[in-house]
Amino acid sequence: MIGKLHPEELKKYVLKYRGAENNSVVSGPDIGEDSAVIKISSEKYLLVSSDPIVGADNENIGKFLIEINVNDIAAKGGDPKYIMLNIIVPEHLGKKYIESTMEDIDSSCKKYGISIIGGHTEITNKYTNPFITATILGETDKLFSVKKAKKEDLLFLIGKPALEGTYILYNAHNKKLSSLLTKNEKKQISSYIKKLSVYNYSKSIKEFAKYMHDPTEGGIWGGLSEIEDLLNNLTIEFFDNIKLPSPVKKITDYFKIDPLKLISSGALLAIIPSSKKQNLIKKLNKEKHPYAIVGKITDSSDFKKDYKEALWDHL
Predict the structure, then answer these.
(1) Which residues are CB-neighbours of 201 under 8 A, at least 6 positions away?
(2) What is the DSSP letter of 230?
(3) Which residue of 9, 191, 205, 253 is 20 to 30 Å from 288, comparing CA positions?
(4) Angle (CA) 117 118 123, round 5°
């Protein structure tokens, strides 16, 4: 299977190998955990995450890289501070490509106040496409955990689903999709590159949230499935009330893709106590953040987990 390993495969081949035990590690590798959490003082935690760039066009590869890594820190309620880069570039792209990518990365890092602190760069004849990955470090003073979830807690989706996947599909199949969309819808898709961050969403909702999760590969349904994996003796009751932007609906209908299973950077899932529902909605409306209540935590439902990413069959 192409893409991220299935959670059961991760458990079998990866997650059982954890190196030496360390009491400072509050949260290590697990399904649905966007960042590792390391206690560095009584009031501060270090957040660490690592992600490659997947599916982005060359023009925006640096921006994509920073946004997806910042999202992992944001999902833990943190602020990004430092980043290390690995940049491996095919020979035909060369040093000019490296410099333009670094300019893009530099600009995105300055936007978030992130310091680039090192890494590795090389040109190779082993690959035809660039391979770029980052390790990001951030800080938080609050712990978020799905273990805090209780029956009747609500699941909020902040942001819109499938924006990232729609952007990638449109750019990969521009000619065949062009006649399908209005001029305004094409303009909307072009704007999706600017809507991949959940940092501001995290800032808005973290005072209300018990747990947050950044659903990327596998989409909203994959993200919910990862949350389900972490729930002990509880499950998810899904509410089918997510409204899709018209370009997302048209393109996913064209490819016969379930939009909830399409890569969705720019959306944030959160477990919210029902008692905080109205106050959160009031704040989201005030700040004009799109949202939907997509489910609740319960002890019995027919929720079926599915982690498969719909994008890869169409690239």
Answers:
(1) 74, 158, 159, 268, 289
(2) H
(3) 253
(4) 150
pLDDT at residue 55, as a whole number: 46
Residue 54 has pLDDT above 60, yes or no: no
CB atoms within 10 A of CB 115: 12
C-alpha of 1 from chain center: 21
How far is the C-alpha of 278 from the C-alpha of 185, rounded, in Å? Answer: 33
pTM value is 0.92
> For the chain, what's the residue count?
315
The pair of three-digit structure tokens given for residue 263, joined into one six-digit string: 């890569």
3-state class (DSSP) for residue 111 = helix
Q: Report CA 169 to chain centroid distance, whole Å.
A: 17
DSSP-assigned states of every residue in 125-165: SS-SS-EEEEEEEEEESS---GGG--TT-EEEEES-TTHHH
